[in-house]
Amino acid sequence: MSTLNRRILPGFRLSLSYALTYLTILVLIPLAACFAKASTLTWDTFWGTVWTERALAAYELTFGASFAAAVMDVALGLLIAWVLVRYEFPLKPLFDAIIDLPLALPTAVAGLVYSSLYVQKGWFGQFLVPIGIEGAYSRLAIVLVLTFIGLPLTVRTIQPVLATCDDETEEAAACLGASRFRTFSYVILPTLYPAMVTGFALAFARALGEYGSVVFVSGNMPYRTEIAPVLIVARLEEFAYGEATAIALVLLVISFSMLILINLLERWSHRYGS
Amino acid sequence: MGADVHTHAGSTKRQTALQDPWFVQWGLIVAAVGVVGVLVLVPVINVFYEALARGAGTYMQNLLADADTRHAILLTLTVAPVAVVLNVVFGVAAAWAIARYQFPGRTILTTLIDLPFAVSPVVAGLIFVLLFGLQGYFGPWLREHHLKIIFATPGLILATAFVTCPFVARELIPVMQAVGTEEEIAALSLGANGWQLFWRVTVPNIKWGLLYGVILCNARAMGEFGAVYVVSGHIAGKTDTMPLRVEKLFQEYNLPGSFALASLLTLLALITLLVKVGLERKMQADAAKALQSASEELLADARAPIKESA
Questions:
Q1: What is this structure's pTM?
Q2: Residue A205's closest chain B neighbor by CA?
């Protein structure tokens, strides 16, 4: 079919060359500029910027918060996907639709509203702050807002897999005397592992780069609540482009490895699924 | 469905092996609804509550009386559509190449399209500053020719286009693959030229998928923060887009103004969701119809020789 099409359908050269030119100008050259700029730094400057106490604290927080949020997203995603696939209840279509809101809502709005909800006078904060839970301007705030951002990603990767689980293996388990809980943990859950891992990776990758919502809720205190992208912006505002680029490069390398990992995972889960 | 277990003969109460007891069902439903309520629904309600807390009059004033806020709305309405159009043209070209032909490097191209999703928005902004900023690679040349990209609208468009680049292509590739090439080849054999083929056959076939991509792309373009933050320079009344203005008002402790603008963006997100659900239904219905007509054709084919022999 393919070689035939290339001869029959017109526009192969036009479409491919346009797509490649666009990608080169918009994506590849700018990304190359980042590597080029970083290569002009001496090894000592690069290392001195990337490996400072403040930078390390920022990486640690970025990773830790993203990891915690992605774990939360997988657990909550599993619960929500389960309820969506297995049960019927009033207003379910509305419930289903609103889960995608974090994908459509500007991150700045998410940050603004989360910071206002969890401060002492906020709707949630008035109950939580007195018992010592600081949901705004703290590390917890970062995890909360990152959980919000990543939630649809895990729900939408787990949901379709759960929907295609066939009843027969479950029936067999039930016939063999397994309890519902046993069936769930030994029969259903293992088939969901690939989807859960992919969902985790997507949410984690998204959280690593997140900026818009976190600046609102974190308070951006160096060493305590400063994430790596905030550090880049801080360097930029001091016009220290070299240092900003060095930290950006660290983030880029990490996110590219995540991209490769996600692709591998998807391939693995395809094989696993079939 | 499942193996039915009758507790009593003639009892209407049935429990299948696959059904969870009611308290488990409702416990999980309440938990899930609670989670989504706390994480998603209450924040949305809170945006509108805070925006309208001082009455509709103050709300409109917060939104429209401030010249910088008005400018931010206009700027977003300029930047986002341009970025979306750029990415629609790219997305259609890329999807056409990927879905219609086999060529070496096809998988690499598919991965390249996803690349911007993996880049932190702040880094996306930074790379354009490195290229076009005053100290950037093209900085001196741009200054000589009195062109401004960074801290100006072109930079906002570039950064937004970068971040939203994958949306349309990603939606279109599977749609184009699913539609197949039969109709296009038929049109070609009937003498259509390339553009006629594209506008009269391909576009009608992919229109819902295309619109879906446009909607998601537009939502992200209007809401983009990190990348735009870096390239804009935050010049109020000049390079502040809506999300940036939200942040600036927040920093100035003008919470009512900030929430008023945020409510506009939230409304936009809700409309996006609504259109998205509508399009998903439409695409499902179309797919079902296509399946049905295909099976009817098969049936007709199967019956034809029987009729002839009769």
A1: 0.89
A2: B118
